[in-house]
Amino acid sequence: MSRTVYVNGEYLPEEQAKISVFDRGFLFADAVYEVTTVVGGKLIDFPAHMARLKRSLGELEMKPAVEESELLNIHRKLVKENELTNGLIYLQLTRGAADRDFHYPDPDTPSSLVLFTQVKDPIENAMVKRGAKVITVEDLRWGRRDIKTVQLLYPSMAKMAAQKAGVDDAWFEEDGFINEGTSNNAWIVTADNTIVTRNLSTSILHGITRASVLKCAELLQLKIEERPFTLEEAKAAREAFITSATIFVCPVVDINGTPIGEGKPGSVTAKLREIYIEESLKAAV
Length: 285
Ligand code: PDD
Prior knowledge:
Blueprint: E1 4-7, E2 10-13, H1 24-28, E3 31-39, E4 42-43, H2 46-59, H3 68-81, E5 87-94, E6 112-119, H4 126-130, E7 132-138, H5 153-164, E8 169-174, E9 177-181, E10 185-189, E11 194-197, H6 208-219, E12 223-226, E13 229-230, H7 231-235, E14 239-244, E15 248-255, E16 258-259, H8 267-283
Parallel strand pairs: 7-8, 7-15, 11-12
Antiparallel strand pairs: 1-2, 1-6, 3-4, 3-5, 5-6, 8-9, 9-13, 10-11, 10-14, 14-15, 15-16
Helix pairs in contact: 6-8
The protein binds N-(5'-phosphopyridoxyl)-D-alanine.
């Protein structure tokens, strides 16, 4: 079935949805994006995704294409038009189309806004059941990873390195510390049951799921430390896991060939996943 896609004010069949070859998203990766998960036809963590989009735009002096309230209408219309029950909505906003020039174009240049749906079940997932295996790779991304831009070539290369190594994903390592996964935030549970994830900075994306899972950890009265952790600490951890909008909370059972804990999904991770799903469904819009 052909999807209905949103492009600059129009809802079109995907075959007819087009963007200019001069679009700066295409030429310079001058664009930001968000991925919002849909469960049971409802949007998970929607206000937080829109708040992060606004922040990304502000950091890049980029204009929003439409009012924030209109974004909710567009998301809802796409869910309806595409009869989406479980999946995601991808939103991309670029600085618009202009003659190729490294300088930003005239500020009156209209931004381009594209949204589309994709079917993907975040709840029933084989990797969550068996736990993910990861390798570490050097973090060679640019220094503003807190801005959710579409420059994703290095994360793609890291995913391919993981695939070639016969594992599921890669974690980015820098100066001996783990920053995050290719498309997720990285966490460990230490021997004394403390939940550790890297503190917010320009080194990592400020994950929306990360923020919600921290609240869940508080609800469970778990000890939390937001700080950098090393690869050695991760290998010695009791449990490890990743979080993102598309996988929610997923156990990590092996890092660089070393089994984590008992080498199978752990109970703290399972509890956090359960509470996250429960809480986020309650708040879904
Ligand atoms: N990726 N870190 C990176 C580098 C990411 O790309 C993502 C999300 C996250 C998790 O953020 P959130 O919890 O807000 O999804 C962390 C999305 C899912 C993607 O690129 O498809």
